[in-house]
Amino acid sequence: MADFDPLNNISPLLRLLALLSLCLLPFIFFPIFRRQKQAPPFKNPTPQSYPIIGNLPGFLRNRHRFHDWVADMLSQTPTSTLQVNNFLNLSRGVCTANPANLHHLLVANFPNYIKGSRFHDFLHDLLGDGIFGIDGYLWTMQRKLSSHEFNTKSLKYFISDVVTSQLDQNLVPYLYTACNENRIIDLQEILQRFSFINICKVAFGVDIESMDNSGFAKAFNDAVDICSSRFFAPIPAVWRIKRSLNIGSEKKLKESIKIIDDFAFEIIKSRAKQEQYDRIYPDWRNQDLLSRFMAKTSSEIEFDDEAKKRKFLRDIIISFILAGKDSTSTALTWFFWLVNGHPHCDRLILNEVTTLDPTFTYDDLKSLNYLHAALSESLRLFPPVPINSRLTVSDDVWPDGTHVSKDWFADYSAYAMGRMEKVWGPDCREFKPERWLHGGDGVFKPSDQFKFPAFHCGPRTCLGKDMAFVQMKTIVVALMREFEIIAVDGGATAEKMMNPPYTLSLLLKMRGGFLVRLKKRRFNPN
């Protein structure tokens, strides 16, 4: 009888992975022992952390409620800051929901906290050298270019016109059909598709639905999902091995990136042919971001060749599509869910939006103080980007005494910040738009940005903040004037607010979608 060989019963791929794992053991454990010897002399709060395995058990137990788990731990520490120890101590870092620390991290010592290799590893395949994943000169140059364009009135009015046009021609008619057929619809999915069409129009100047996009939309969604999974992988070595072997999700990512690149470069190439004509005869159709950046790069930046120029344009435009693709739709999903569970807020918003003329303008939206407060309160509780991260350049001490070492990651949780009693008071977990209104006159009163980092803070503050509010207000006005939006699950009750249904991703999307029915309004808003 032949000797039993257990390796004969596993696939060649698994055998290869086992062999690779054995080869990697010295590289894994040597750094661990070295780190143990070089352990810092200070001790930051480290709840639910164990030797060797770090925070892994708690992460696995609380993966379905990750952000609330983080908020719970932060609220139990003296200064709303904790140290994070990853599996095998392969990386360490800190996480905070302390406004003073946030100011230090994002403003006072801004040069010491960069996107760095962590962001580069996770997002470079998709974003390349785009503004949201880079530092130094490249970031400064792109920020300067982008800041100038986002402050122009022409772009603000262009975006407002795009949203209004898409509402009138696509979204509202679709919702009327669903309403007449008494269908249950996933409002989150519909808003995501609507936002994607809008951002492609704003970024590329094209109607993504009326052209052969060769799978661009699906490829973009797949690429974002796979890059997101890298951020929250309990053991990052797994996705790195898959990338090296070009298997599984990493193979799919590579295929998706090729589709994205082919689509983007084709549009850039065709637009380049029109560039000279556009400079002589500009019109509203050429107010999109690609046209604007092409004009800027032609006059202000020199490139070695056309290929590098096209790559630069591809990276910056894809970055803005990522930023605008799901952030607005995610914010609006939670907003409608919250309003459904708070009928008095629904009535106050409705009373306000029905005062607008049917042909309201961009400037008219500024008068909607209660709606602005309700949107801000929704963003406080459910920020589209719930947690953000930086890499530490040099050892540092934060205002609350937290020690941060070189090469540690430094995270801040906007989600947890909105749930800190020290910051927002004992009613911090409640949906109360009134907290944003000035006492007597009901005028909206902005919050300190370091208490409300939904749009980030400091030099990297979101350039599209004002335009995001314009888009959200425009959509809310258009939908609420026409329909009652009725959540199938009843909306945000006090019980559901304690365990909200979100997914673990870069963006705080609602798990299972947001199922609603629509009813036509029974009155004339005029």
Automatic annotation (TrEMBL):
Cofactor field: heme
Alphabetically ordered keywords of this record: Heme, Iron, Membrane, Metal-binding, Monooxygenase, Oxidoreductase, Transmembrane, Transmembrane helix
Biological processes, Gene Ontology terms: lipid metabolic process
Binding residues for heme: C462
Entry's Gene Ontology molecular function annotations: heme binding; iron ion binding; monooxygenase activity; oxidoreductase activity, acting on paired donors, with incorporation or reduction of molecular oxygen
Entries under CDD domains matching the protein: CYP86A
Family named by the database record: Belongs to the cytochrome P450 family.
Protein name: Cytochrome P450
Lineage: Eukaryota, Viridiplantae, Streptophyta, Embryophyta, Tracheophyta
